Amino acid sequence: MRTAFLSIAFSLALAACTERPPEPFALRVEASTDEGAPVAAAGVTVDGKLVGRTDAEGLLSLQLPASYEGRRLTVEVQPPEGLKPVQARRELRVERILTRAQGSTERRTAPLEVRALFAPTQRRYALMVDVGVPDLPIELFGVEKARTNAEGVALLLAPGVPGDTIDVRVDAGARPKLRPRAIRQTFTLPDHAEAFVLAGAFTEVQPPKARPHRPRRL
Predict the structure, then answer these.
(1) Residue 25 DSSP one-character state
(2) I need a labelling partner for 121 at 20 to 30 A (CA). Which of 101, 162, 170, 188 fits?
(3) Same domain, yes or no: 39 and 76
């Protein structure tokens, strides 16, 4: 009897030793800009505690303890300098799901994924100028940034903050015969990459023809 009892106790102890510990929960975080570029070095917090930073591919993978099962977590991704969050915070519930295979039921960890999206605080906008006159100065907010080429065209990139406006002016400068004296337009900068076109035409004023002098009759 004693031997049987010891055998049962040993079997239970052996089963306890060989039982697998609960599987931890895998958390995957992906950070990118609204144009699809990965965001590196973005800090990731879980319930306000920093747990890591995204790599060069904008990814961070880590494991949460099995004891987190049943908890609700707040995962937030902090943007590096020069970016602002569009979608960077998510509430997650840590739980396991039941799966049935080959007549048995198994509890597996539900995938935990967070995708953070950021937008640059400042963008670069393409600006095309076509006025048909060569070598005219192109001013942004009164500062010369480029000049038209031989065809009277110029292409430049202008930095700006979304929501602001950009003032573009092509000045006739030292060409007193050109009309109008300037071609000007103001653009409102959207929160996405955009190309603007300033098109216009200068005309050259011809001096009046001198009338032939007729001798006066006495």
Answers:
(1) E
(2) 170
(3) yes
